[in-house]
């Protein structure tokens, strides 16, 4: 999968920009604040329909203008396509091959993008919320209906918590919420279990490569229901209902839902030790890279095509050896790398690299 070209109108600090991309490596080079991340942000929008930096569409529209447009032409093994996002005052439209879509999940999966930013280097170190958000984004890309399940789950969870905060909790209504929560929850639990199992395998191999075989990375699913491989949707449903029922008094007392997949996390071990507690900074960072980049192989396994990889500002955070390992190991994917400077030009193969030099919202030259 690759992005052939990109058109931006009134996107952040760009008035009007048209770029054609290299099939392999695209380096976006420029000083701070010039518009490198803005370009990859727009590419991300083609995949997810929204920014990864803000949930407020208004912020990405160029100051003092009203109508924004992002269009991208992409190729897959057997098809070509066009994704377009337009944002105007109080309106937003997304088209796939000139046809308006109604729901975000119709967009997901057209262009698969894996984005790696400096925050991802802390994926292992951060709290469970960040890891859950990682899991959710990745599964949604591979399986758009997951996104729907999750939206429904969160909606019901919110309503349930509202009800728990009311003066007199209506237990019949609570029953209804519990059933819905367990219904969507059980789908999500199973999908998360299966995803984590796959990503654990891939990241184990990748980590072995990145550490020269010294470290064994082990990732497992941490959840309150002790979900096992044999569990089916209906067994998970029953487990979940049971938990909710037996904790109802407690939930009413504390006015919040104690059990559910909103408490999930990952157990991450290196050579048998919990890397969050005992790992060095470097080990935590490398484990984060292995975990995050395992999506690339996973998407290829599930979708049959490699995703587009965006490395926003992470490149300069890696030492030369790791930069080279990364570029060499990922030579099958189209990459967009933003960086203030290229310290080790020799790691890129000139014949399949294009350098875009960026200055205050303009691509001033292409090498
Ligand atoms: P760094 O190396 O620091 O990450 P960068 O090149 O990635 O820098 P970007 O984040 O792409 O920088 O661009 C930031 C610039 O975009 C800032 O100068 C900011 O003022 C400008 N900018 C952000 N939003 C808008 C907007 N809505 N309209 C116009 N300009 C904007
Ligand atoms: Mg940036």
From TrEMBL:
The keyword DNA repair applies. GO terms for cellular component: cytoplasm. Residues 3-341 form the RecF/RecN/SMC N-terminal domain. Its main location: cytoplasm. GO terms for biological process: DNA replication; DNA synthesis involved in DNA repair; double-strand break repair; SOS response. It is found in: Cytoplasm. This is DNA replication and repair protein RecF.
């Amino acid at each position: 999968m690759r992005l052939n070209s990109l058109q931006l109108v009134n996107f952040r600090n760009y008035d009007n920009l048209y770029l054609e991309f290299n099939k392999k490596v695209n380096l976006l080079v420029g000083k701070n604040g010039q518009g490198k991340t803005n370009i990859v942000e727009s590419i991300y929008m083609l995949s997810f329909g929204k920014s990864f930096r803000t949930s407020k569409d208004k912020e990405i529209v160029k100051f003092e203008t009203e109508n924004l447009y992002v269009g991208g032409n992409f190729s897959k093994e057997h098809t070509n396509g066009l994704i377009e996002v337009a944002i105007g005052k109080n309106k937003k439209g997304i088209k796939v091959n000139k046809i308006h879509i109604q729901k975000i999940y119709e967009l997901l999966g057209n262009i698969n993008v894996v984005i790696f930013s400096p925050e991802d280097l802390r994926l292992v170190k951060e709290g469970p919320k960040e890891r859950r958000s990682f899991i959710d984004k990745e599964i949604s890309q591979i399986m758009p209906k997951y996104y729907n399940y999750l939206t429904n789950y969160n909606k019901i969870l919110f309503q349930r918590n509202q009800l728990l905060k009311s003066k007199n909790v209506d237990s019949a209504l609570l029953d209804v919420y519990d059933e819905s929560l367990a219904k969507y929850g059980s789908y999500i639990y199973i999908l998360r279990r299966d995803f984590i199992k796959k990503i654990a395998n891939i990241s184990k191999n990748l980590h072995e490569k990145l550490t020269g075989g010294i470290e064994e990375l082990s990732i497992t699913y941490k959840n309150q229901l002790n979900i096992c491989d044999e569990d089916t949707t209906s067994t998970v449903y029953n487990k979940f209902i049971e938990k909710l029922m037996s904790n109802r008094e407690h939930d009413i007392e504390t006015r919040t839902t104690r059990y559910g997949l909103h408490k999930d996390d990952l157990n991450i071990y290196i050579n048998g030790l919990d890397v969050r507690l005992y790992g060095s900074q470097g080990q935590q960072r490398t484990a984060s890279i292995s975990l995050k980049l395992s999506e690339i192989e996973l998407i290829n396994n599930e979708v049959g095509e490699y995703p587009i990889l965006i490395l926003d500002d992470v490149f300069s955070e890696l030492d030369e050896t790791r930069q080279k390992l990364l570029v060499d190991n990922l030579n099958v994917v189209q990459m967009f790398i933003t960086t203030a400077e290229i310290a080790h030009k020799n790691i890129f193969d000139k014949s399949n690299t294009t350098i875009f030099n960026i200055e205050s919202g303009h691509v001033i030259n292409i090498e």
